[in-house]
Amino acid sequence: MKWKEFKEAVAEELPTTTAWSMSSGNKKGRMLFRGQEDETWPLETSLERANTNITNLESYAHSCLSAKRYMGSILSSDLKMEYTEATIKIKPFVEFPNYGLSVYLRHHGFPSPLLDWSESPFVAAYFALAVNPRKNSDAAIYGYRPYEQINHTEGDHYYSKIDSKIWNIGPWVETHERHVAQQCQYTCCMSRHGDDGEFSSHNEIFSKRLEENPIQRNHFKWVIDASDRSVAIADLFNMNITPFSLFRTQDAAAKTAAMKLFGEHV
Predict the structure, then answer these.
(1) How far apart are CA 192 and CA 110, in angstroms?
(2) Distance (Å, whole) CA 230 – CA 247
(3) Is 53 exposed, middle or buried (0-12, 13-18, 19+ CB in 10 A)?
(4) Host domain of residue 103
(5) Distance of CA 14 to CAs 57, 120, 129, Å?
(6) pLDDT digits (tens, 9 = 90+) for 25-47
(7) What is the pLDDT of residues 218-251, one digit of tens each?
(8) Beta carbons of 146 and 163 less than 8 angstroms apart
């Protein structure tokens, strides 16, 4: 579809209030969005792509602490003090262990079982269309409503045949500033394995939902024509969705300046 068609389609799915809670007048339920540069790519976490031997919550939590110790000299004092072995609590679908540290490391490229989403379809569109503006493949923007937004209950319960589910962990965490700038939320797909959580595939469950529930309209995949990348990037720029507004670094500011001077293909 063209960029204009995507904007029209997604407008029908957006709530008319800023409130996340349905009890605050958000009757339809706020959606989460994720952009991917190539529509053929599966929904994969960076931990899946890294092909590590980390398969469960407990082993991942200890890996994050090892990374924190290695990075100790350049981490803020709050991160150094707040997260320790004693703060690891393995409570699948209740509490993600050392959530703030995990999100922080994920924003710095550390492999993560967390799949990042945005509350903004246009932030998601940036990652789908603007990160690599010369890419010739069509891009994809995914959208879904967490279970509690549909059913007025706590927790996310998207089951597959192997009893895995997508757990929407939510936005309420003190962590990296990009978390706020990008309006992030995070999901983890796993199944319960004793007292631990065993990681599973987002793509498996999401694909099933796209096939099985076309009428419920709680799972979406919009494919944006590669030929409309420049149009979309210019529109996003006008919304102040730029490298600097999303990443808040000197490199991102230089990239934004280059886009102003030379266009989106720099």
Answers:
(1) 24
(2) 21
(3) exposed
(4) 3-13+20-262
(5) 33, 9, 20
(6) 445 567 899 999 999 999 999 99
(7) 889 999 999 999 999 999 999 999 999 999 999 9
(8) no
